[in-house]
Fold this sequence. Notes:
This protein is α/β, with parallel strands linked by helices. It has helices spanning 11-19, 125-131, 156-172, 186-196, 220-233, 324-331, 352-360, 382-389, 400-414, 420-427; strands at residues 27-32, 35-41, 52-56, 62-66, 72-77, 98-105, 110-113, 118-121, 140-149, 176-180, 197-198, 204-207, 239-244, 251-256, 260-262, 271-273, 280-283, 286-289, 303-304, 312-316, 336-341, 364-369, 393-394. The protein folds into three domains: 3-77, SH3 type barrels; 98-304, Rossmann fold (3-Layer(aba) Sandwich); 312-427, Rossmann fold. The protein is built from ten helices and 23 strands. Strands 9-6-10-12-13-14-17-18 form an eight-stranded mixed β-sheet, with helices on both faces. A five-stranded antiparallel β-sheet has the order 4-3-2-1-5, with helices on one face. A hairpin with a 6-residue loop joins strand 13 and strand 14 (251-256). Helix 9 (400-414) packs across helix 10 (420-427). The protein starts with 10 loop residues before the first helix and ends in a 19-residue tail after the last helix. The model has no long low-confidence stretch (mean pLDDT 88).
Amino acid sequence: MDMPELQGYSGIVRKLLEQENISIGDEIEIISDGRKYRGILMARYELADPNYITLKLSNGYNIGIRVAENTSISKISAGAKPMFMRPPKPQTLSGLPNVIIISTGGTIASRVEYRTGAVRPALNADDLLAIVPELVEIAKIDTEVLYSLFSENVQVQHWIGMAEAVDHFIHKGVDGVVLTHGTDTMGYTAAALSFALQKPPVPIVLVGAQRSSDRPSSDAATNLIAAVATAAKAPFGEVVVAMHKWHSDDIIALHRGTRVIKLHTSSRDAFRSVNSRPIAYYQHGELKVVANDLNPRGSNNYTYKPKFDERAFLVKFFPSMKPDILSILADSGIRGFIIEGTGLGHVSSDWVPIIRELTERGIFVGMTSQCKFGRVNMNVYDTGRDLLKAGVVPLDDMLSEVALVKLMWTLGNLGEGAGLEEIKKLMLMNIAGEIYSRSLPNTDSW
Length: 446
């Protein structure tokens, strides 16, 4: 009998089940310690105690029953194995905007996998549409599965692939684009698409979920509805991230793609706009735009520049960190560094000589801060001024992750022969809202 028939079971328990020709989904009876249990055999978490059987009782609850020497198991009737059944695709209404949902993976396109108890990619874009039928009242939906990846597996070539797919659908005339994406690196992808797809004529909305779509507490449906509504109706052409503003389902925030970061591992309101406010909010079926510096929908200034060079490196400074690592990385071919320094943009003074050597070799060194709010100011203290003299470029209020992505994009678009001044000039140019002229107070907290 192959593994899926008794998913998660092993050892003595598995042998007992195989002897009775029992499979997942069968109705069985267990007699143990003089007590009788009757229910449906469920798949189970394979790394838990192997001496338990999981049953779904007639009242809907699952229980675990320990198998002892006097335990007897019998099959009452065969049942269908539990599996995901796609609901029928709802009928599309006419006269609505055209939105393409591009699936790249992540929790929003995943289900709990009982073999390991983990969340695994399982649903495609059509599944999402069938599960959230409200979408057909918002837009005419087309779907495409581009990737099926957890976001930690997304690489530069995937950013390029996403940019190519979005550009393709923009030229096909869609009214908006939604990309489902894992949340852990969604901020990086949002920044990459912001630089690759500048001033797009339609909204490009990245959306994810903190909890998979088969969980009762999932945020997938509400996030997806807001994302599709934004793609269909928003008056701007921007790359944004659509995620919960707070724990409740009633408000979804739309964050600028170069200003958003994931600040909580599991909370629904994990995403925050840093040094800025969200572009808009989606609440009770209405989109409220709160920013006024936005590229308008239908803009004729669309620029497509999907080149990236991976030879950029993000370094987080810490006390006693030796600067030699910079030289080792530079010798391996790294063309530029983003240093995440302390406070206003500092590293230990013993880094200054090596940084000077790197910049004299034409290697870019940019400075951001480990502080999420505020901006770099390297003129206040002696160490900062020494770093400036060594060639470090302060990157104002740019997020470290965004600065890394922008450096990859800058190196990719300028090419191999780019000089340090060319790189510096482009890094300090505000391309997609990644640099603000003034800092805003942090008023949006948990």
